[in-house]
Each structure stands twice: as C-alpha cells, then as structure tokens.
Amino acid sequence: MISRAALPCSSLVPDQLAKPTPGADLPADDADLKGWQIFADAQTGQLDKSNLTKGAALDIIAKCEARDAATKKKVLGLF
Q: Would you say the pTM of this structure is higher than 0.85?
C-alpha cells in the first residue's frame, strides 16, 4: 500500500480569499450628506464581499476536514 500525506486543508484555500477586502474610498473632505450616503452604501458592499470570501474559505476548510476524517475512518475500518 502506498500512502501519501494529504495536503493541509488550508493549502486548498486560494490566496485571493485570504487577502483583506479594501474599504470603500472616503468621500471628499467637503462632502455633503449624499456623498456620505454613497460612501456608506459602498462600504456595505465591501463588507458583503469580505463576508462572502471569508465564508467561502472556511467552507473549503470544513469540507476538506470532513473528507479527511471520512477517509481516515474508511482506511482504519471504522465505518
């Protein structure tokens, strides 16, 4: 039997998902209320992106760990 160590689950997460999501650009110093509303809306969009990518990364790791646990049980005969 040839055995090969599985890659660590975190290695399956693309680097892009681990990078910070930049915040929205601040409005100009003399911005009016509308400028701040536009900023707040854009910032919320950036937060949505960040939450999505971080959730995707954690989902990849969880599925990998479940796969490894299932394989370990099967190999050890612990159905």
A: no
